[in-house]
Design a protein that fits this description.
The complex is a heterodimer. Chain A is an alpha/beta fold. Chain A folds into 2 domains: 210 residues, Glycogen Phosphorylase B (Rossmann fold, 3-Layer(aba) Sandwich); 158 residues, Glycogen Phosphorylase B (Rossmann fold), CATH 3.40.50. In chain A, 39% of the residues lie in helices and 16% in strands. Chain A has a 7-stranded parallel beta sheet with strand order 3-2-1-4-5-6-7, with helices on both faces. In chain A, helix 4 packs parallel to helix 5 and helix 7 packs across helix 12. The two termini of chain A are 23 Å apart. By secondary structure, chain B is mainly β. Chain B is built from 1 helix and 10 strands. Chain B has one domain: Immunoglobulin-like. The longest helix of chain B has 4 residues. Classes of the chains: A alpha/beta, B mainly beta. At the A-B interface, strand 10 of A face strand 1 of B.
């Protein structure tokens, strides 16, 4: 199969880039003809490598280069600069990629999309999904990916999604809640849920015996560490031998440090900073705690489950309830309920057998998120589209009928 | 090498309290253990506090005001040891936290400071881990608005 992955910028380190490159590399390793296409290029080499069996190319090289000689070259350079100064025509203003996609870049992307005649095109953010729906109409099969939950999109972007997503051959979302939300906003869209894969299922399991709870993420309000810290303070009143290790960096670090000091938790809660050894850190812990206000699909939580860690999590949109059943792999707590989060942590702190039992259940559940299992689901989708069968597993009436083009 | 392993440090209520146990050194009968705070530079002066052991366990505290005497130039740094008594010839033990798996405690296990106002200057007294994970106490002058003064 010929598969093209279109990324806004393949030369970065973000979560979407990592996820998409993992998918592309897995498909390349399985023998498919894979090309990763970066809309813009601002760096020489990508920090995350593309598998040598695949290819990496770019549409707009923004590293700065000399204009072609002569009056024609100067005229072309002047036109490019003028277009570069103007906003895109089709990308909604609230799409975070709006800044990076100026008129010149947008024209180049449209030209690229118009030229595609065969194979599968996977676009990886709303701006690119919308452009593909409108312009990649020459015969290529278009699969749009959504890495964020619908609730994070503003009205102008929602309107564009409602208008254009039904034209795509498939839209892939990460969670069941997203599947329902996108269908409600854009009826007729062929939505399929395919979560991201963990990087490995072959992980060192936790013994669930160390009195260490772990959390991870950017130190930003979204992650709710300001709720987790007081909740942990309540829990260690009953179990003072436990400690909480929060991995990550971010601009709320000083604020969280103050919160730790106000609650006199400097002996129990540690801001660990960044680590290159997250796998080892997860294996040392005995529970993973997710205190987010919202998520897309919380991958570190799922990575933690691959180590056999039980989870205590707010039931926030979206992700935790897709992965976890309350009482099975861990405990789900109403979002924002600090006392509930404390009570759930206390319950696991006080019961090593329960931790081990839920950790085993987590390990069983996470098998569905392994690299091979997820590759299988993508392969199934692409093959069904190539056969003209529509989206596998879509149960909504009319979902197997092609939408308007 | 033997040392005094910290379990908890409590900088609050005007005191610094250190809780932990001896490691690699069994206490003997008749020893009168003390906590020593030694000024790192300057006149090398030493503060001494009784630190009776319960088996190998210690639980000792001192008032932060002692660490900011008027005749000590700021910033000042005090290193912490436990010693088996004033007349003892046995070597003193460094107080630190060496036995767990956390590297780089200087930036991970961070304690709050407490302010001491005396003799027209205000100082902030803050225990911290050195790059070798030993415990020391930093004393810095602060302005009225609470911001630190550059040395």
């Amino acid at each position: 199969m010929r598969i093209r992955y279109l990324l806004l910028h393949a030369y970065g380190m973000g979560g979407t880039i990592r996820t998409v490159l993992t998918q592309a590399n897995t498909m390349a390793a399985a023998g498919h003809d894979v090309e990763v296409v970066s809309v813009v290029r601002r760096a020489g080499e990508p920090p995350l490598a593309v598998d040598p069996r695949g290819r990496l190319s770019d549409i707009a090289d923004l590293r700065g280069h000399a204009a072609a000689p002569g009056p024609a070259g100067r005229l072309r350079a002047w036109r490019e600069r003028r277009r570069a100064a103007r906003p895109p025509r089709y990308v909604p203003g609230s799409e975070p990629g709006h800044k990076a996609i100026n008129r010149a870049v947008e024209r180049a992307v449209i030209g690229y999309l118009r030229g595609l005649r065969d194979g599968i095109l996977v676009t990886t953010r709303p701006a690119l999904n919308i452009l593909a729906a409108e312009f990649a109409t020459g015969g290529v099969l278009r699969v749009g990916q959504e890495h964020m939950n619908l609730g994070t999109h503003r009205p102008d972007l929602r309107a564009a999604i409602a208008r254009w997503y039904p034209h795509l051959d498939a839209v892939a979302v990460l969670t069941g809640r997203d599947r329902d939300d996108y269908l409600r906003l854009a009826p007729g869209t062929r939505v399929v849920r395919i979560p991201n894969a963990v990087h490995s299922l072959d992980q060192k399991p936790s013994t669930c015996a160390n009195k260490i709870a772990v959390a991870a993420g950017r130190l930003r309000p979204q992650k709710g560490f300001d709720l987790l810290i007081p909740a942990f303070g309540q829990a260690v009143e009953a179990y003072p031998d436990w400690q909480l290790r929060i991995f990550g960096t971010g601009n709320k670090q000083p604020r969280l440090r103050r919160l730790i000091e106000e609650h006199h938790l400097y002996n129990h809660v540690f801001l660990m900073g960044r680590t290159d050894e997250m796998d080892e850190e997860l294996a040392k812990a005995s529970m993973y705690v997710l205190s987010s206000r919202y998520e897309g699909l919380p991958m570190v939580m799922i990575e933690a489950m691959a180590h056999g860690l039980p989870v205590v999590s707010f039931d926030c949109p979206t992700g935790p309830s897709d992965v976890i059943t309350d009482g099975k792999e861990g405990l789900l707590v109403p979002p924002g309920d600090v006392d509930g989060l404390a009570a759930a942590m206390r319950r696991l702190m006080g019961d090593e057998a329960l931790r081990a039992e839920m950790g085993d259940a987590a390990l069983a559940t996470v098998q569905a998120y392994g690299p091979e299992a997820i590759r299988e689901r993508w392969t199934e989708l692409f093959e069904a589209l190539e056969r003209g069968n529509g989206v596998p597993g879509a149960s909504e009436p009319g979902s197997l009928v092609r939408g308007p083009r | 090498m033997a040392h005094a392993e910290l379990d908890r440090v409590w900088p609050r209520d005007g005191r610094v309290r250190l809780v932990g146990r001896l490691h690699g050194r069994a206490p003997a009968a008749g020893e009168a253990w003390e906590l020593l705070l030694t000024l790192r530079d300057g006149d090398g002066r030493r503060l001494r506090y009784p630190a009776p052991l319960d088996g190998p366990a210690f639980d000792v505290s001192l008032p932060v005001g002692d660490l900011a005497p008027r005749d000590v130039a700021l910033p000042a740094y005090w290193d912490a040891h436990l010693a088996p008594g004033p007349a003892a010839t046995a070597p003193r033990l460094r107080v630190g936290r060496l036995l767990d798996d956390i590297r780089g405690k200087k930036h991970v296990m961070v304690y709050p400071g407490q302010t001491v106002a005396a003799d027209g200057r205000t100082a902030r007294v803050r225990p911290y881990y050195t790059v070798r994970d030993n415990l020391a106490v930093e004393v810095r002058e602060v302005r009225e608005d609470g911001e630190g003064v550059a040395p």
